[in-house]
Specification:
The complex is a heterotrimer of chains A (155), B (606) and C (224). Chain A is mostly helical. Helix content of chain A is 62%, strand content 0%. Chain A is flat. Chain B has 606 residues and is mainly α. Chain B contains 17 helices and 4 strands. The longest helix of chain B is centred in the first third of the chain and has 37 residues. Chain C has 224 residues and is mainly alpha-helical. Chain C has a single domain, classed as Four Helix Bundle (Hemerythrin (Met), subunit A). In chain C, 68% of the residues lie in helices and 0% in strands. Chain C is built from 7 helices and no strands. In chain C, helix 1 packs parallel to helix 7 and helix 5 runs antiparallel to helix 7. Chains in contact: A-B, A-C, B-C. Chains A and C meet through helix 1, helix 2, helix 3 and helix 5 of A and helix 1, helix 3 and helix 7 of C.
């Protein structure tokens, strides 16, 4: 479709003086790396010792994740340097996720309660311990966690 | 189209260079294949969508006639049915499975292949480049692919009608477990796999088209065509594309999970199931059938507006042109389209009030749902105030646009009933629901589509459609639509459930037997009249009265500044520049002022 | 020809791109928006099922192996290596895009090469992880792992894990293919002839999106 060219070729390359900010890219890289390391440390060494604080850790993970997402979109995908209206056309639809997530999880949770309330058999079944048959090659990990360490369910 | 553009700090300019145009338009040979089959001209692609949509509309309509025959005359047999349908209607009576197959296919075909593909596929393709002043879509190649994916989906869907076990028969919403378990019904076997495949192709088509519409509207407007100078059709089609691009992928995800449930041994949607047919309890545990409904309706509700918005946009435009008055409250119209688009994403679970949805969550959805009444009412009152005290020209396009407004009001009002979760306990799954959505999105979207076809037919084919047939078409369809669906409200209020083969066994619905017979008769008449419309359409392509002026309706918008039969590239010379909004009708003593005319020194403000 | 647009002219005024980008880049952005909803739907469906279950396996137990580390209990280490590889390849991709901006063919080729290597490395890691889980008896419809509290788990943990990481892996795979095509086109000087490297930029957007999705998959499957 060469016919209806919508724009013009002449002057690329000449005005490309706006050099890419390599420093900012590496800074973003270090930020992402540090956040991932923090997540790793929290997930590996800290969270397993405080089961009652699972919810708090999850909130922490969400904050870290959103921070990482922000840096990837803003710097790597260069959105921060686009025109504001364009940023809006991406940001506003993304806001739909708020209600998308809230309503789905809300109803998921409600479905669990519904079943536990009206189907006692289902509730009983889900409390029955499986006979100890750890997955192959997982003796250590699986064995350890099957104790009474983790009574609460996950959200 | 390659991507020649400036980047970095320089401006990306999309105006069309004069020399450029002179060199390229009209100077290439086109073969039959490139012109009519694998065409990249948006106008031809629009016609391809329209005609494919018409074929589907006839098929889908015929299905409704067949099952109305069963509903109206449950005690009779029609031997000729066996002649045309074969084993679907042994002994001249449609069997229960095939009745469900017909109902399912009727819904799928009309919702997706006619009112989505056929409606926004046609008019977004046809009108966007013409009305914003562009040579073609941003990517004509992707645009062509969009049609051919649609065509491929159509073929797969059509082929499912002819397989041994029949097409999918679990309802157009494809709820599991009926859709997830091959053992659940004959239609849930291969028919469902073909159904999913066809729908996946359809989603790809809609994505390719939608991305094109969005970037064309944003990036390729001619000089002076600011967003707020665009005709309302453009706004409507733009937001339709936004809805499609953001909601269809969710449906696709739902379908992928469904495919795994069907063939991968997973249990995303399955739990605690015993199949009577095979006397077997399934091992699937922990899934949730409600999850599929959420995923489905996250598309399903925006889908309603994907169907309705193009009709709203076209009706606004046609009403303003034929009332010879500026549209009342242009910015309010734009704002309400935007509000509807946002709300469309927030209200999906009002289709699920009685499925086991958390009632408190349901009440939030009630609130959000009822909010839609606000922008809808704004639009309705703006249409009414536009025709208020106007000197109306009752062209066929205008008649259908007015019919659209009438149907949108009557159907929208019953939506307020259904949006309340408490009333829904009584009304869900009854004929009341059928009446509601057929009027508000089925027939009224069809009216918008007819209005668009009658109005832009001269631009498409350089001829007019026959007016006499058009008026007959209008009155019979309008009266017929109300006669078919109005009585259904009463049946629904009386509790008559939908999706049943035969109501004669119910003591409580026996007195509706004659009413059902009446509805079926009217449905057949209305269907016959649609065939007359199709005849009018094809007859007028070749024999219609010729258009002699470039602007037969006296409209302000850009498509009427092109030649009567524009070639690929739309304008032979430079693309016109735009100086004003699209609604300067009856201004300063002039009948209309085209968008291309500069603002005069003494001109009044609108 | 390239009109110098007066500073006071409105961005939305028509006649040029309101966002100062070429249409292909805009399309890529909105395609990614759409794809974000595909992934979003998957992850939200996963969340919904997890919320409606009374128990769920512990990721620290499931994902605790490392290649050649035998039975050592090393939760999260391997997946962190995968994350590192993907972030690294994102960096090399930005550098390729940056080199494209200054029409530096050699650097574009170099950075694209490393991006492709990163992508392949990630796919390799994923293949190892899948293989390892499969050896333990995990697959679509099969879940050998128990819930946190030791009760029998439904198969949905593995169902969602394989579906979503599989879908993500498919995106990485197509991203690698796209990057290889870009590499060949750059090598042949196609973009030099065009005078700009916008295609690299679009491929870059796609690649970063794949990285972005991984950030969420990582959180949802390995941390929660």
């Amino acid at each position: 479709m060469e016919k209806f060219e919508t724009s013009h070729t002449a002057e690329h390359g000449h005005e490309e003086k706006h050099s890419f900010d390599t420093k900012a890219i590496w800074r973003t890289f270090w930020i992402l790396l540090v956040i991932t390391c923090i997540e790793l440390i929290v997930g590996m060494f800290i969270a397993p010792h405080f089961h009652s604080l699972k919810l708090m850790f999850n909130v922490l993970y969400i904050i870290f994740t959103l921070a990482k997402a922000f840096y990837i979109i803003a710097e790597f995908m260069h959105l921060r340097h686009e025109i504001k209206n364009m940023i809006m056309t991406v940001a506003i639809p993304a806001l739909l996720f708020i209600w998308f997530i809230t309503a789905f999880l809300w109803d998921g949770n409600s479905y669990k309660n519904l079943r536990n309330n009206y189907d006692p058999h289902h509730k009983e079944q889900s409390k029955v311990k499986a006979e100890a048959k750890p997955a192959h090659g997982e003796e250590h990990g699986a064995g350890e966690s099957h104790g009474a360490e983790k009574p609460e369910t996950v959200h | 189209m390659s991507n020649e553009a400036l980047h970095g700090h320089s401006e990306v300019v999309t105006t069309h260079d004069v020399h450029h145009d002179e060199h390229h338009v009209h100077h290439h040979k086109e073969t039959f294949i490139t012109k009519y089959v694998f065409s990249q001209d948006h106008k031809m692609i629009a016609k391809q969508f329209l005609i494919t949509g018409m074929v589907w509309a006839i098929l889908g309509g015929l299905m409704s006639v067949l099952f109305r025959l069963q509903l109206g005359y449950p005690d009779q047999t029609f031997p000729w049915l066996e002649d045309i349908l074969g084993r679907w209607a042994k002994g001249g009576k449609i069997s229960a499975e095939n009745y469900y197959a017909l109902v399912t296919m009727h819904g799928t075909v009309l919702v997706f292949f006619v009112l989505t593909g056929g409606l926004s596929g046609t008019f977004a393709n046809f009108l966007i480049p013409l009305q914003i002043g562009a040579r073609d879509m941003a990517s004509p190649f992707m645009n062509m692919l969009s049609y051919w994916f649609f065509f491929g989906g159509s073929i797969v869907m059509l082929s499912s009608l002819f397989i041994q076990t029949g097409p999918f028969s679990g309802g157009w919403t494809a709820y599991p477990p009926l859709s997830a378990l091959g053992d659940a019904s004959p239609g849930s076997k291969t028919g469902m796999d073909l159904w999913i495949t066809a729908m996946a192709l359809f989603v790809v088509s809609s994505l390719l088209g939608g991305l094109n519409y969005i970037s064309t509207v944003l990036n390729m407007r001619t000089k002076g065509m600011s967003m707020t100078r665009m005709p309302l059709t453009m706004w409507a089609l733009f937001f339709t594309a936004v809805l499609g691009v953001l909601s269809f992928p969710v449906l696709l995800s739902g379908f992928i999970l469904l495919l795994f449930d069907r063939h991968g041994g997973t249990s995303f949607y399955l739990s605690d199931i015993y199949i009577t047919a095979t006397k077997q309890a399934l091992p699937n545990e922990g899934g949730s059938a409600i999850l599929f409904q959420h995923l489905f309706w996250f598309l399903g509700h925006p889908e309603v507006y994907i169907i309705l918005l193009p009709a709203m946009g076209m009706a606004s435009e046609i009403i303003s042109i034929n009332a010879r008055k500026p549209i009342f409250g242009y910015m309010a119209m734009v704002g309400s389209i935007f509000a509807i688009t946002i709300l469309a994403f927030l209200v999906w679970a009002h289709h699920m009030f009685v499925t086991g949805l958390n009632p408190f969550l349901g009440s939030v959805f009630v609130l959000l749902t009822l909010l839609i009444a606000v922008p809808s009412a704004i639009k309705v009152f703006n249409w009414l105030t536009t025709i208020w005290k106007a000197n109306i020209r009752f062209t066929p396009g205008m008649m259908f646009a007015l019919g659209f407004v009438s149907l949108f009001i009557s159907g929208g009002l019953t939506g307020i009933f259904l949006g309340n979760s408490t009333l829904d306990i009584h009304l869900h799954d009854t004929y009341f629901v059928i009446a509601h959505f057929h009027i508000v999105m089925g027939v009224s979207a069809f009216f918008g589509m007819f209005a668009g076809i009658y109005h832009w037919f001269p631009k498409m084919y350089g001829r007019f459609m026959n007016n006499t047939m058009a008026y007959i078409h209008f009155w019979v369809t309008l009266a017929g639509a109300y006669l078919i669906f109005w009585p259904m409200h009463y049946e629904g209020l009386a509790g008559m459930p939908r999706r049943y083969l035969d109501y004669s066994g119910w003591e409580s619905f026996k007195h509706f037997a004659d009413l059902n017979k009446f509805i079926s008769t009217v449905a057949m008449i209305v269907f016959a009249i649609q065939l007359m419309f199709v005849f009018n359409f094809f007859y007028s392509i070749f024999k219609g009265r010729k258009v002699t002026t470039t602007n037969p309706w006296g409209a302000t918008t850009l498509e009427w500044t092109t030649p009567i039969r524009p070639g690929h590239g739309n304008w032979p010379g430079e693309i016109p520049e735009v100086h004003r909004w699209a609604y300067d009708y009856s201004k300063d003593g002039r009948d209309f002022i085209p968008q291309t005319e500069p603002i005069g020194p003494n001109e009044s403000h609108h | 020809m390239a009109q110098a647009v007066p500073a006071n002219q409105k961005w939305w005024g028509g006649g040029r791109s309101p966002f100062n980008v070429e249409y292909g880049k805009l399309m890529m952005w909105y395609f990614l928006m759409s794809d974000a909803f595909t992934f979003g739907a998957f992850l939200i469906a996963y969340g919904t099922v997890r919320f409606s279950s009374n128990g769920w396996p512990d990721p620290n137990v499931v994902f605790s192996s490392f290649p050649f580390a035998g039975h050592a209990h090393l939760p999260l280490v391997f997946v962190s290596v995968m994350t590192f590889i993907l972030i690294m390849s994102s960096v090399t991709m930005v550098l390729a895009v940056g080199a494209g901006h200054s029409n530096d063919r050699k650097s574009v080729l170099k950075w694209l090469f490393w991006t492709i290597i990163g992508g392949i490395a990630f796919l390799g890691c994923q293949a190892w992880e899948w293989h390892h889980l499969h050896d333990q008896g995990a697959w679509w419809g099969m879940n050998p792992f128990h819930n946190f509290d030791g009760s029998e788990a439904s198969t949905n943990f593995t169902n969602f894990f394989f579906t979503i990481t599989g879908f993500h892996g498919f995106h990485v795979f197509s991203g690698v293919i796209i990057n290889i095509i870009m590499f060949i086109m750059t090598y042949r000087g196609v973009f030099d002839r065009r005078g700009h490297y916008l295609m690299i930029e679009k491929a870059g957007l796609y690649w970063h999106f794949v990285d972005l999705v991984w950030v969420f998959v990582f959180t949802c499957f390995y941390l929660f």
